[in-house]
Design brief:
475 residues; alpha+beta; OB fold (Dihydrolipoamide Acetyltransferase, E2P); 8-stranded mixed β-sheet; 34% helix; RNA-binding
Amino acid sequence: MNPSMLSKIVLATMPYMPLKYNRRLEVVVGLILMAKDLWISDLQSGDMVEQEISIQGWVKRSRSSGKIIFLSLRDSTGNIQCVAKKDTLDEQKFADLKSALIESSLVITGTVKEDQRSGGNEISVSDVEIIGSVNPEAPFPITESAMAAADGGETEFLLDNRHLYLRTSRMTTMLKIRSSVFGAIHSYFRGLDFVEYQAPCFVAGAVEGGSTLFEVPYFGRKAYLTQSWQLYAEAAMPALERLYTIAPSFRAEKSRTRRHLTEFWHAEMEIAWGGNDDVMAHGEALVRHICATLLEERSAELESLGRDLEMIRRFAENPFPRIRYDEAVERLQALGVDIEWGDDLDYSKEKILTADFELPHFLTHYPKVAKPFYHRPDPEDDKYVLCHDLLAPEGYGEIIGGGERTWSEQEILERIDEEGTPREAYEFYIDVRRYGGVPHGGFGLGVDRVIAWLAGAEHIREVIPFPRDSRRVTP
RNA sequence: GCCGCUUUAGCUUAGCUGGUGGAGCGUGGGACUGUUAAUCCCAAGGUCACAGGUUCGAACCCUGUAAGCGGCGCCA
């Protein structure tokens, strides 16, 4: 279909639309943009006072008396109050508007007025068309009381009605912040000439411990959903040298915490010719870039969530401290925590360690016994591996895990045997090392965790549209 | 895998030591020309999650089941 045909069809099917040109799309693809091109944020900007406009949106709330209706209209950019008076609107239209329930969609025509009584601009309504009405026998179920009960968290009812909860201002705000975080990750890596690279979701072997794999039937065989892009990225490392992805990873953990999802978005990177410190530098720079991007693009949204912008500025502008595992253990022991050298740092210990942190901290050089085979042992002391975790403050826990990879064939075989892992499952991974292996490394960042941390969400579920955990796959 | 908690109207909830379940919001009807979660009047709406048990009598006590939520371990 050619572009002019498309716009004609649109013109024919949407006669109520005030058609305008979208300059950017017109220039890029020579296409007339046919959909909505006037937004509530435009009306609130103040540039359109006294102009006659038509605007599409949904009813956020409505109040009426016998002769006047106050209706708060919302779209994806904000809210504006519409005022309809019985003596200036057709009788039938007035009745239609009065009966429009919350989340009815409509097109309002009227004049933009500056009015202190509505705290900004409002629309003096001259015409209205209801597009999608709402049945009074089944009104929009997300009520004030449902929202108030959640008070920033989420109730069972809101989780069951997630498809409708998405329209509320809190969820919309979270999704806008989420979009900016994804954008920041792409702009960071692309700005440094990394290549975006995709790995399969169906895999044959585990990256992390095998117990957390989702098994799926695969034409009479068993396959698993990927836990990480890493092993496939290491295969492409000699080809691309700098690569990254943002993709879902799956973990069949029965965890029920504010930090866990079974399907989460994983930003991962891999670089050739680099070691633990190089990888860590990228992790820090990426997280600081995300913070700076949010300050630039989403300050209003963060403030509406009650976030302290100065705190996020602190994350953006200061280097992240680095401490070795040994030092962390000593600190914890000094605080009276029951921990021995060689124990992994579980969440309860992380929480104690990070309680006073004003910045994210890197924890490096874990004992070899606490980490899987692909971590490279430290040549200076092979009790340790060259790895790092980035711990976020405020109890949000680990947001990055990464490090240098075991890169020679001999070393990887030793580590696999030492762990008792069967070699067969990793044949391609080992083979990659037989042809010009080089030092390399990478990290994985839990995108949803970063968003939850920066947005101050009570639970990771609040920052993903349709959360998946061990007890919920619907809606 | 382990521990804890919850379930009363569409939503949010009150319901004391067991004695015929109340309210706010929402919905419907009515009043009101500047409301900000508008206000005022009226109405409809309940097998108290389900199944047993104890009791003269159970939303309430006991047992089981189900669904959900919170947390731990593990991890991003």
